[in-house]
Design goal:
37% helix; alpha/beta; seven-stranded parallel β-sheet; Translation Initiation Factor Eif1; Rossmann fold; 19% strand
Length: 564
């Protein structure tokens, strides 16, 4: 039971309205709004972000992640009381406390006599779960009224089943060490762990599994390398594509004691299994005759650590693999835990809870990522384009609106202005025909999924070297591509309302600039279409991190006036 502080029941003009359905309304123009937002983001998720009032919701998964990160229900209560404009109801605070108390009511532990056990100090919970059809096949014999054996191979699937029942288990069963392999960091001039990177690595090592959430450009690879050095065992690193795999390899060679012969690439082009193996998600889920031979081959190795880069993109088949290797330490890296398939619960149960998270603006304030200005530019379609949009089938309207030719002049004007100012620029989109048209008009190279890996690497290297100042890229550049020189990103189309894609695209330009200049992220949107609606949805995660989109008319861009 949460005790009411009588003084806290008096309205005090705070920026937050706490509602009985566990939604939180934040008045963003209030002078305390930013301080409030930073606190509630630890346990609440942003749902809507119109101009003046942002809506957050406290969900069970958000509260369990907070609890796993060491935040107590009393701390949540204190935050809500501190910022609430009106008195809080006892029932709401009790509901939050009871939800958070569900995490860890069931515990997985290793017993020297009986093996893997599920235990509880709340017997009715145990009676409930041992009578649940989805759980029974995963359990072994009952040891005593509060303890039941678990078939070791079912460790991951049991945690998935329990979280769906609303009883997330705390996994204290430990991990196998894996085959030892010495790894040390080479901290020298130009590379040393930042304080938050060390804290993130330490938080992971202390727990043995879980997710580290850091902004794009904040050095998640360095966190992984520090964790690898602490564990010093054979390590499997899973990445989004071959270009990312080779960037990881270069980072490991530059900043650790590992040599060329110790690092293998397992991709569509190479099949090397070495003490440190970097594999792509695509190759390990590739099937042959209904089987997954590459996944099976990698699963047989004695890994001590598995690193999941961009864990928010983890394909469903890799969840199945991960369910089978719960005895291995698992580190997930991401800029956002948002998944558009709503499988955040699977990340929680199979990779682990969130172990470390720093708001983007905090890292920016420390100078480790560039400050960014976000601008939405609204384009008015021609009469013909409006008619084409109106006559399109509902499933085709987004493509029709987002690829309207009226956007081309705006993008060209933005690129001309950026290049004149010496700003290396990326034009990013979803639809290949639109990108090819832009590449032709802008006389810029185009990189898509069809671009051979060697050509991608050549173009990215030329961009880093300043030989190319403008690239047109598809979603293949959304993730794990290190382009620190990029200062301007222009988004012309996206994956409908994908919040994580918006965050990743902004992340392409957040590496700190040598001259301290600001990054600029432009989203070019067709007015009065669902392109505009999806843009608002995509912006939600960045709004939660404290970024605000300035809205300007395309006419201002075409006459060279972006002052607003």
């Amino acid at each position: 039971m949460v005790n009411e502080d009588p003084a806290s029941t008096e309205p005090h003009g705070g920026p937050l309205i706490v509602q009985s359905d566990q939604t939180l309304l934040l008045e963003i123009d209030h002078p305390d709004a930013e301080a409030c937002r930073r606190e509630i983001a630890a346990f609440a998720e942003l749902e809507r972000s119109p101009e003046h009032v942002h809506t957050y919701r406290m969900t069970p998964l958000g509260l369990w992640n907070a609890r796993a990160a060491g935040i107590e229900a009393a701390q949540v209560s204190v935050s809500l009381r501190r910022w609430s404009r009106f008195p809080l109801s006892e029932s709401l605070l009790t509901g939050v406390a009871e939800t958070m108390a569900r995490y860890g009511r069931l515990v997985l532990e290793e017993d020297p006599r009986h093996g893997l056990l599920l235990s509880t100090r709340d017997r009715p919970v145990m009676e409930e779960i041992v009578r649940t059809a989805s759980v029974v096949p995963l359990l072994g014999p009952r040891i005593d009224p509060d303890t039941v054996a678990v078939y070791r191979e079912n460790r991951g699937r049991l945690k998935q089943a329990l979280i769906k029942l609303g009883w997330p288990a705390e996994d204290r069963a430990g991990y196998v060490e894996g085959m030892a392999h010495p790894i040390r960091l080479c901290e020298r001039e130009g590379f040393t762990l930042r304080p938050y990177q060390r804290q993130a690595a330490d938080a992971f090592v202390a727990s043995g599994s879980g997710v580290v959430v850091l902004p794009c450009g904040a050095g998640k690879t360095a966190v992984a390398m520090a964790a690898m050095a602490s564990v010093s065992s054979r390590t499997l690193v899973l990445v989004t594509n071959t270009v990312a795999a080779r960037q990881w390899r270069a980072e490991l060679l530059a900043h650790t004691t590992l040599g060329q012969e110790e690092i293998g690439e397992y991709s569509g082009e190479r099949k090397e299994i070495r003490p440190i193996t970097i594999a792509t998600y695509q190759i390990i889920i590739k099937k042959r005759g209904g089987l997954t031979p590459h996944m099976d081959a990698l699963s047989e190795e004695d890994w001590g650590l598995i690193v999941y880069d961009e864990v928010h993109l983890l394909p469903a088949p890799v969840f199945r693999m991960t369910a089978d290797i719960q005895s291995r330490r698992r580190l997930g890296l991401t800029a956002t835990l948002v998944r558009e398939d709503h499988k955040e619960g699977d990340v929680f149960s199979l990779i682990g809870p969130k172990r470390f998270d720093v708001p983007w603006r905090d890292i920016e304030a420390q100078g480790y990522i560039a400050p960014a200005a976000c601008t939405e530019i609204r384009v008015t379609l021609t009469d013909d384009e409006r008619m084409s949009y109106a006559l399109a089938e509902s499933q085709d309207r987004y493509r029709v609106g987002s690829t309207a030719r009226s956007k081309l002049a705006v993008v060209a004007a933005l690129c001309a202005s950026a290049l004149e100012a010496g700003e290396p620029t990326l034009v990013i989109g979803q639809y290949l025909d639109q990108l090819e048209t832009l590449g032709s008009r802008l006389q810029a190279p185009v990189i898509t999924g069809a671009t051979p890996t060697a050509e991608r690497e050549r173009l990215f290297a030329a961009f880093r070297a300043g030989e190319i100042r403008l690239l047109v890229v598809s979603k293949v550049a959304n993730f794990s591509i290190d382009l620190p020189e990029a200062t301007v990103a222009i988004q012309v189309s996206g994956t409908f309302g994908s919040r994580q894609e918006e965050a990743q695209r902004l992340g392409r330009i957040l590496r700190p600039k040598h001259d301290g200049r600001k990054a600029h992220f432009y989203s070019v949107v067709a007015r009065d279409t669902n392109d505009q609606e999806f843009a608002l949805r995509r912006q939600r995660f960045l709004a939660e991190q404290g970024y605000a989109y300035r809205i300007v008319d395309a006419g201002d861009v075409l006459v060279g006036d972006l002052t607003g």
